[in-house]
Specification:
By secondary structure, the protein is α+β, with helices and mostly antiparallel strands. Helix content is 32%, strand content 20%. It has helices spanning 22-26, 45-49, 53-67, 88-100, 108-113, 118-127, 142-153, 170-175, 208-213, 241-249; strands spanning 2-5, 78-82, 133-136, 159-166, 185-192, 199-205, 221-222, 233-234, 254-260, 263-269. The strands form 3 sheets. A 4-stranded antiparallel sheet has the order 1-6-10-9. The protein is globular and about 55 Å long.
């Protein structure tokens, strides 16, 4: 739908070497569980303590993406935060307290953290990003939906930081059908309108062909798309898997596909 020149200042997904799990993404395997992220030097200890695990993963990835562009004006830097599941752990705590102990026992901090845009707020404050900000949630197509929003935002600002991530929780594990394995992931890319890197194109399709390949999320089992990373998906894979694949392909190029009900998004890096 949109094409720009993309300067990839940095990216990280599962650890700091997304290429090591690229084969798993191609095979449609669940992303492995992530460890505890380390605090970036650019983030104060106080800000780090106030973050959830998902926000910490997002901030670590974002700081790595910005490290290669120390002179970038963050006052005009746009931010797109993509998450399919949001702050599951905090949301569960709110709902459990609400149903078992009453609304008076709900923690204001947990309630504040439970909104999907929480990580975007932490990213802006911790990393000094004060440009326009959007939060994207689009089920199984969240990763590349975020990329599409980032490209559209680039029409208004010179650079956009695209960050995405999802984590699992104990209750999500219990809700999954037997045999399903949930996955986690986080990634960040810096996109620049006048960059010197590769070009990024995100195309969307809706129609008989797209509908034939798309089933509802959650519980989806989608048909493979030849030659593309994330071509097959089953329940339990991270909703931001498309963005993880995009981060893994940023240096070498390639195609990534995300699918949701009635929608197929394809990103090409060349």
């Amino acid at each position: 739908m949109s094409t720009v020149i993309t300067s990839v200042a940095g990216s990280c997904g599962l650890g700091d070497a997304p290429e090591t799990w690229l084969d798993g993404l191609r095979a449609g395997e669940p992303a492995p569980l992530l460890g505890a992220p380390e605090r970036p030097d650019a983030v104060s200890p106080g800000a780090w303590r106030r973050m959830s695990r998902l926000s910490r993963l997002a901030t670590r990835c974002a700081a790595a993406a910005l490290a290669g562009r120390p002179g970038l004006d963050r006052g005009d830097l746009g931010l797109v935060w993509a998450t399919g599941l949001g702050e599951l752990v905090a949301t569960e705590r709110v709902l459990i307290r609400l149903t078992e102990e009453g609304r008076e026992r709900v923690s204001p901090m947990d309630f504040q953290t439970s909104v999907h845009s929480t990580a975007a707020g932490h990213l802006g404050v911790a990393l000094g990003i004060s440009g326009p900000s959007e939060t994207v949630c689009a089920g199984g197509a969240t990763g590349l939906s975020g990329a599409l929003h980032a490209l559209l935002m680039l029409e208004r600002v010179p650079a956009v930081l695209l960050v995405g991530g999802d984590v699992i929780s104990p209750w999500l594990r219990r809700a999954l059908p037997r045999g399903s394995e949930p996955g986690e992931g986080a990634a960040a890319l810096l996109l620049e309108r006048q960059g010197a890197g590769r070009s990024l194109t995100v195309m969307s399709g809706l129609g008989p062909a797209a509908l034939a390949r798309a089933l509802p999320f959650p519980g989806e089992t989608l048909r493979p798309v030849p030659g593309a990373v994330c071509s097959a998906r089953t329940l339990g894979l991270s909703p931001t898997l498309g963005l993880l694949g995009l981060a893994a392909l940023a240096a070498a190029g390639g195609a990534v596909v995300d699918q949701a009900p009635g929608l197929v998004l394809r990103a090409v890096v060349e």
